[in-house]
Amino acid sequence: MAFDLGDGVRRERRGGAHEGRGSPRSTAPAAAPINHFKWQVSGDKKYLEQLYTAQIEECQLLEYIDTEGHLWIDRVGMPYTELQRARLGGIALVRGGTYPGHAVSWKFHSPATAQSLAILIPDATAASFKVIAFNLDQIPVRATLTGWHVDPGTWEITQGIDTNGDDVANNSIQTRLVTFERSKSLDFVFPARATTVLTLKLKTPGKPYWLRPDLGLSREDVVVDGQTLHVKIHSVGAAESPATTVVFRDAAGRVVASAPVPLLAAPIDLVPKTCDVDLVLPSGVSIPGGSVEIDPDRQVEEITEINNRVCL
Question: pTM score, two decimals?
């Protein structure tokens, strides 16, 4: 977009991560999303090469103003949205964003790191997506994939090796069915110096999230009073939560105390719905290293189980 500086000279304004600064380069930051989408449509990785080359150049040219010379003291300027699109199947976090849109997240098990796998997810939807991953290490990489913007249900996973570079598995192909949904994790092993292709497809839809209850607690909801734990449990789901139990596990994982949790309504009127429960621990039971867990037998089908347990 052209604008006038007032001296009769017209300048070009470019968008992107550094909106307002002109760029003499042929590949401006504003073109980055376009190149990503070109790759998604065509499958040609040259567009990603152009995208990342331009971003590296941008970082080098603007290193000072984006670090020590930055206009603000609470951030540095880095292009990171397209890397999220490629590795996570969507953008998990961006300044000004109010809701994450990534399909998955990754955890790499030592000695592997986030740089051990070159990952591309070209076509993520809530019901299917593909992962193309090349292991750069000389040993197999163990990684955990966690679902986020995915629909719940029974998923079919096809895993194999791509030996000819067409992003399709043609060797050592295996297929399995798993239960997969938001916040559920799957473990994979990626062979050394090989391209693994994962194809995940929803085969049988499960109960929608918006029809599920969700119980939760945080560390602040557990108050230690001698050998008694005062626990506040929250109902934060979309449906009434049935009665269940809450337990205390010692450092060895053994259940040493339990208490009933009553039925809790859903906060559909935007008023918090909570209950207070006391866990009385036997004499001599050590609290440090233990944990408080809701619904230890996994009888309630919740939106997520990641807020069901806190460590003390």
Answer: 0.84
